[in-house]
Amino acid sequence: MSRTDPTLSQLAAVLRGCSPEDTAGAAVPFGAAGADLAAAGQRDELRRWLNRWGCRLRYPQPGEPDLFSNSLAGWWGTIGFRLPADPVAELGDAEVGTLADGYADLAARPAALLARGGAPAGHRAIAPTAASKIMFALRPETVPAWDAAIARATVGGTSRDHFASHLEAARAWARAAQDEARRRGIADIAAHVGRPGASLARIRDEWLYLTITRGCPIPG
Asked: How many CA atoms are closer than 13 Å to the CA of 62, on its beta-carbon side?
């Protein structure tokens, strides 16, 4: 088995023995009502959550436009609200394509103004890592987040097509994990690997973070 295709025993060993110091990122920022990024308060909370999860998205200074909030509102109104919400193992190819399109559009949108010598110098984009985490926050059953190290190590980059490959690999792994669980009589994969209540998308994200970004050893 490889970094991207762990058995349930490997998952349990790594997730129980090499846990991240801060697992706050596992809890998505929206309540029981779910996400509605048409609401400015939800966009603000999403940025605070992303910054707690290491994204370092700049807050606008007095008098500056809030590019991040404006970008989210525009993206949500045209694409984001239509994202598929199926569990990752149940995604079809068309749904993978829709998610990949949404990710690429979001990653390219402005996040904050840049300045050089006190003069405006364009803007910083939301970029791939934050875009993937936003997608996970909106669809925690569906989309495993990633960072640049994970993207390079698993699918070779962070483009739209790379993200589609990321989702396809997650789908294949989730189906294999479910098959293994059935063979072994494991009723609850998340509880078995020490992450009760977590989605398979979140479990895969944590596995990749621990074994690639943090370099935790994989048991044989």
From this structure: 0
C-alpha–C-alpha distance, residues 140 and 138, integer Å = 6
Site of tokens 């669809």? 139
The residue type of 114 is: L
CA distance 127 to 113: 14
> How buried is 147 (Cβ within 10 angstroms: 0-12 exposed, 13-18 middle, 19+ buried)?
buried
Model confidence, pTM: 0.91
**Three-class DSSP category at 116:** strand
User: Which of the 8 DSSP states describes residue 170?
Assistant: H
pLDDT digits (tens, 9 = 90+) for 138-188: 999 999 999 999 999 999 999 999 999 999 999 999 999 999 999 999 999
Look up residue 87 and give its two tokens: 């569990």
Contact assessment for residue 179 and residue 171, using Cβ atoms and an 8 Å cutoff: no
Residue 167: closest CA among 47, 83, 79: 83
Which residue shows structure tokens 């609200």?
A: 81
